[in-house]
Structure formats: structure tokens, C-alpha cells
Amino acid sequence: MATLPTSLQSQHPSLMALYLFSATYILYRFVTGTITFVRRRAIIIQNGCQPVPRYPHKEPFFGLDIFFENLRLLKSGTFLLAVQRRFNMVNGGRGANTYSAKVLGETMIFTNEPENVKTILATKFREFELPPIRIKAFGAIFGRGIFTTNGHDWETSRALLRPNFARKQIADLDIFESHFSKMKAHIPLDGSTVDLQKLFFMLTLDSATEFLFGHSTNVLAPGGSVAGERFSEAFEYACKRAGDAGRAGMLAVLMPDQRNKTEIGFIHEYVKQYVDKAIRIGKGQNIVDGSNGRYTFLEELAKTGYDAKRIQDELLNILLAGRDTTAGLLSHVFYYLARRQDVFQKLRAEVVDLKGARPTFGDIKEMKYLRYCLSEIIPLGGGPDGKCPVFVKKGQRVGYSVYAIHRRKDFYGEDAEYFRPERWETIRPGWENLPFNGGPRICIGQQFALTEASYTIIRLLQSFEAIESRDDSEYREAFVVTLAIRGGTKVAMTPASAI
């Protein structure tokens, strides 16, 4: 009968168990690794996949060169431009629309090819999902909502929220007029400098909270609102920290922040009071301070029967989109209008045709040059020919740069980086234009955002006949979660004569 070697017989039983476990684990990893390699190889051969060009790293093992360069670029406000230029640095400087690079030891794929984006967002939508890094970074403040979930949870969120963005709700412009009037009162009439970006973030917070909660934060109201201003500060801080954590990736654990926890706690308590009230209304309880018959997003959600935490999470997800993206869009519109008097005058001529009347939803839809201006602001493959299929491993992250896509000269012309709204008279891009994403995850609130932005632009151009830039510095980015302008949109505005 066979016996174990004397050297093993003399070992303690616990050590024997450790040896056996280690040997079994190594064998398991070898077998599963071999099976995975064979399967992947078969997929690559079957589909004719070719490797993508590699980024020319200075430190190719962990990609620390890109990581530290990104930190420097984010600090200087030139990150997006550098991301765009990296596509031209691969292939020995010949450039490519898809390449791979190391980021903190992880091999990622980066692309500005519309067909690849279409594959991710539409044709193979179920094979791609939001990465755990983003979900973890945003989860502390936004919980489990439409921007932080995948699969069935995401489908449930979208089905829950989409009916609340019907045209009937979007076409009610009174809510925009009320808050626009308060914002207008903050704009000097004597030619003094004003930061419109600051006002736009206040405007979109006030209007979004009224639409969502039935109660505005009222940070633009005369004298302001102590609770509203506290919520505004907390929300801005927590959003910035969420964005920073998402960009830091696995290093986010090295960014502990007690203030962030405090701010998130306040945000949740602030929203919870309105959620609890709406749920009581939904149960038929008589609440004196209700919405007085107005449509309220929150009250509609409360009728669905979902629990308070789920409703709170969805509200905060939509608030992020309703505040940050629209404020960023408006800030960029007036940043360029202040520097392009020809565009300002042409756009104002279209607005003047309304003869001072408040625009209707139909009026907004008919204003072509306004639409061109918004389209111009919003646009802010493998193998040797870049046309071959690319193999993406399970769990491998793929990043697509909308900024780079929207500045491709083969799509938008040689002046792709120049502000020229007239280009939209003739171009009709498909997946080359992704201001609101695409496929099943296309933004459900895009019409709300465009309507608010359009209404605000029209009313400002009805109220002011001239604009002057008061900041001659070069454009620099500012990231919260979305994009804003570092230094703001500092201008002076001249009140209009009677129209």
C-alpha cells in the first residue's frame, strides 16, 4: 500500500491541509485559465478580431504616466483636450480612433468611433454595463437609481421615471418663468460684471426642486432661503466629491472625507421630509402644505407604492441631471455668445420676432437658429485600418469620449473645434452626435433640459440687447460630475429697449 513521503508524514495536519488547498487552488486556476484562454482564442478567430493600437506609455506596467498626467490636467482645466489629442498619439503618431492603455495596472480600451459607441449603447447593450467604480462612487449620495444601476434594477428605474417626462409636463412653462424672473433680478442693469454661471446653477436648482419635490429651494428668491442655500452647498460639495471618487477609481479609498458624510446626511434628510409628505398624500392623508393641484414629480412617484428610500434615490438621480447639465449648457452658451457678437445678434434677431411675448412651447420648437446654437454647444476600431472587430474581455472597461467624437473633422469639417452654429443647417449626424447618450440609456429628460435652456435664453435675449465678456482668459474646464467653466461666465449685459 502506498504511503506519503516521510517528510510529509511528519508535518502538522494543519500544514498538510494548507499544502493540499494550495495545490488544489493552483490546479483550479490553471485549468480555468486554460479554458478561458481557449474560449477567448476561439472567439477572436471566429470574429476576425485584431488587437487595438497601444498608447505609447512612458511607464507601461501600471500606466502611472497617464494617471499622474490626468491629475495635472484636471488641476489645470485642460483634461478633455488632452484626451482628444491622445487618439492622435498612437500608431507611431499616425493616430487611431480606438486604442488600449494602462490605467493603474488595468488595461482599458478608449474609443471615439461612433460604431463602437453604438455597439456599447445599442446593438450589444446587454453585454455592457456601468462599472462598479462608478456605482460605488455615486452610490453614497444617489443610492440605487437610474444613473447607478444595471440590468433589472435599471429597467425598473427607467419604467418608473419615464412617464413623468411626458410633453404635458414639459410644455408647462410657468415654472420656468417664475424662477427666471427671480434670476433676472440678480443681473446688474448698470454694466457691472455678473457671473451668469453661478446664477444658472441657482436657477436650475430652484426650478428642478420645484418640479421634482413640489417645493423650490428658492436660493434666487429675495433674501434667499437658509435651508435651500444649505442644501445647495451640500449638494454641490457632495457631487464634486462623487465625481472625484469616480475619476480616482480604486484610489478613492485613500480619500476619506468626514465633511462629505455630513453633507450627504443633510441632503438625505432634506429630501426625506418631502418624500414622507408625498407618501402621506398618496395614502389620502390631508396635508395643508401640498402642491395645490400642480403637477409634482414626487407625488406621482409616491402613487407607485415604492418605498421611501427608492423614491428618494430616484429623485436625487434626476436632480443631478436637472441641475448640473442644464446649468452647464447655459453657461457655455453665454460664454460663447459674449465672444461672438455676430452669433449673439443673429440669435437675438430671431428672438425679437416674438415682439416681447413670452415664448410658448410651439415657439421654442420653431426657432431654428436657437436650435443650431444649442446643438453646437452640446457637441462640446482595431487592426491596422481601425475597421476590424475588437475583442473585449469580460469585465474590461471601455471608455468612449463624446468630446473627441464631437470634434472629429471627418464628421464636422475642418473647423470642428470652432464655434459655428451654421454647420447644423446642413449636417444630420447619427451616432456621431451624442449630446444625450443613445440606445436604451438615452436621456429621458432631454426635452425638459432643452426646453428650460431654450426658454431661459429667449427670455434673457428679450431682456438684454447686448452682452460683453468680462473675462479674457483662455477656456478652462471645471468638473463637478458634469462639465462647467472654470472661472464662470463673467459678462456685462445691456438692458433692452422696448421691443
Task: Describe the protein.
With 499 residues, this protein is mainly α. It contains 20 helices and 8 strands. It has helices spanning 6-9, 13-47, 64-76, 79-86, 114-123, 132-142, 151-161, 167-170, 174-184, 196-213, 226-248, 258-282, 297-302, 308-337, 341-352, 361-366, 368-377, 402-405, 409-412, 446-463; strands at 98-103, 106-111, 194-195, 398-400, 464-469, 477-479, 483-485, 490-495. The strands form 3 sheets. Strands 1-2-4 form a 3-stranded mixed β-sheet. A 3-stranded antiparallel β-sheet has the order 3-8-5. Helix 10 (196-213) runs antiparallel to helix 14 (308-337). The protein is globular. The termini are far apart. The mean pLDDT is 89.
Question: What is shown here, in short?
Answer:
The protein has 499 residues and is mainly alpha-helical. It has 20 helices and eight strands.
